[in-house]
């Protein structure tokens, strides 16, 4: 299986603008979808379930008839008290793509399939990939080494190869994909979609503060620190942002620092992946998608010329 039929509508490039806590909202989703890639956001970026429903209405009203599909991320874990209520809204509103994190649950998959939706689940290791495949998900998002947010530690080539050996659904590759050439490389490796987070922080429509967008532009791969100190689970953060908050990146504890709740922590210390190396400007999402498409075509042409 490659890309599910319901997600092919309006799709101009096999790219998903990944859901990002405190960063992706309706403006980013609408611009991404209208430009021909899949736009997504975490439902928890809205403070309440009713607010979440309002965002869905807002997005649907602003999508062009030929827009690509959109998706929503739900954290499937007992620590998310909003899960049931938000899922009910997703089912009622028939959200085309549901992205689940942490738990891959058969009931969620069945509920989404019930209205014709598609479920992609994100994993960072092969054990979780097998569990999610057994739960019947349509696609697996392979979060490889260097990704923004809660990144994995496995090399993308190894991860794609191993998961492909037992999973014939859609494979979505995540981690350090920031240019159209990277998208072409992901497809060449056997992925069906490229999943891009960090690149979309530095867009006009992202909800990140201007200083955060600029920090991503200025950061290279070595300006990213992988640590559990901010969130309890290892994640990638911009080193200058740790320093700006008085946290010494050279003496980080192996446990979570006392930074109040998760939202406060992520609002204070900014996350990005090593793919910041490929982010050199802040620009409107529509313009970024056009550039990605051009770079993708150029990379394919270059490859054709290199064939023996
Ligand atoms: C600031 C930030 C917030 C994120 N928040 C979430 C989230 O709420 N849910 C989720 O599933 N993934 C989240 N991620 C991970 C992304 O969805 C995606 O897997 C990752 O950004 C892809 O790697 P890249 O940043 O190298 O492109 C986040 C990533 C970043 C950078």
Automatic annotation (TrEMBL):
GO terms for molecular function: dioxygenase activity. Keywords: Dioxygenase, Flavoprotein, FMN, Monooxygenase, Oxidoreductase. The keyword Acetylation does not apply. InterPro entries: Aldolase_TIM, NMO. It comes from the Bacteria. Coiled coil: none annotated. The keyword Oxidoreductase applies. Pfam families: NMO. Belongs to the nitronate monooxygenase family. NMO class I subfamily. This is 2-nitropropane dioxygenase.
């Amino acid at each position: 299986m490659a890309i599910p039929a319901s997600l092919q509508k309006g799709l101009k490039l096999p790219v998903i603008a990944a859901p990002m806590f405190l960063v992706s909202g309706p403006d980013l989703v609408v611009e991404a979808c209208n430009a021909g890639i899949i736009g997504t956001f975490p439902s928890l970026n809205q403070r309440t379930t009713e607010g979440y429903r309002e965002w869905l209405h807002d997005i649907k009203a602003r999508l062009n008839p030929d827009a690509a599909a959109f998706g929503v991320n739900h954290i499937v874990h007992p620590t998310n008290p909003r899960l049931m209520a938000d899922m009910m809204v997703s089912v009622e509103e028939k959200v085309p793509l549901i992205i689940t994190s942490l738990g891959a649950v058969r009931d969620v998959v069945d509920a989404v399939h019930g209205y014709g939706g598609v479920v992609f689940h994100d994993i960072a290791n092969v054990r979780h990939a097998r569990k999610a495949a057994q739960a019947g998900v349509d696609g697996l998002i392979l979060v490889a080494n260097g990704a923004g947010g809660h990144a994995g530690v496995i090399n993308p080539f190894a991860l794609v190869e191993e998961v492909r050996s037992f999973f014939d659904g859609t494979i979505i590759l995540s981690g350090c994909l920031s240019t159209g050439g990277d998208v072409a490389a992901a497809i060449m490796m056997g992925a069906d979609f490229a999943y891009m987070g960090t690149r979309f922080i530095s867009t006009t429509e992202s909800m990140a503060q201007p200083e955060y967008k600029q920090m991503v532009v200025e950061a290279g791969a070595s300006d990213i620190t992988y640590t559990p100190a901010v969130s309890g689970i290892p994640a990638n953060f911009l080193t200058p942002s740790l320093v700006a908050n008085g946290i010494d990146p050279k003496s980080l504890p192996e446990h979570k620092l006392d930074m109040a709740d998760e939202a406060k922590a992520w609002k204070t210390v900014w996350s990005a992946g090593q793919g910041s190396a490929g982010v050199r400007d802040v620009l409107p999402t529509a313009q970024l998608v056009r550039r990605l498409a051009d770079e993708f075509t150029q990379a394919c042409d270059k490859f054709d010329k290199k064939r023996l």
